Structure formats: C-alpha cells, structure tokens
C-alpha cells in the first residue's frame, strides 16, 4: 500500500481511502509538520506543527512521532 500523504511542490495531497483508522501519518511541508489521521467515523483530521524545535525533532526521529508530540504537549 502506498503512503497516503504525498508532498508535491503545489501542496499536500492525502488519500484517506488508503489510511488505517487511528494511525498517524505525517509530512513536512513549508517548514512545518502536518499530521493526519482517520478516525472510526471515517473523518480525516489534520494538525499543523510549526514550532521549529519540534519540527526538527520530528524530522530527526520520525519513528518517535507520538512520543515527541506527547512530550511537547506537556510543556
């Protein structure tokens, strides 16, 4: 299965039909991290992270996305 979040020069394209429910997907675009997920009601959610420190931490450690977000949500 292809990754459902695609970054192109004109913007971000998502394919919700390829997303697994409650799994987070992310991409980096325009110096920001965008996080997408689909819930049990098939609604697609999007969150934007623009803090440069957090963006760099996610870029450096993408496998730890959830832990990084949790850590910074408590600050």
The major beta sheet can be summarized as: 3 strands, antiparallel
The strands making up the biggest β-sheet line up spatially as 3-4-5
- Number of helical elements: 2
State the separation between the terminal residues, measured CA to CA.
36 Å
- Count of extended strands: 5
Low-confidence stretches: none
* Rg, alpha carbons: 12 Å
Structural class: alpha+beta
Mean pLDDT: 93
Q: How helix-rich are the residues, as a percent range?
A: 10-25%
**Which strand-content bin applies to the residues?**
25-35%
Shape: globular
Q: SSE order in H/E notation?
A: EEEEEHH
Question: Secondary-structure map with pairings?
Answer:
Elements: E1 5-8, E2 11-14, E3 25-29, E4 32-38, E5 44-49, H1 52-60, H2 65-73
Task: Describe this structure as you would to a colleague.
By secondary structure, the protein is α+β, with helices and mostly antiparallel strands. It is built from two helices and five strands; from the N terminus they run βββββαα. The protein has helices at 52-60, 65-73, and strands at residues 5-8, 11-14, 25-29, 32-38, 44-49. Strands 3-4-5 form a three-stranded antiparallel beta sheet, covered by helices on one side. It has a two-stranded antiparallel sheet with strand order 1-2. The protein is globular and about 35 Å long. The protein starts with a strand and ends with a helix. 7% of the residues are buried. The model has no long low-confidence stretch (mean pLDDT 93).
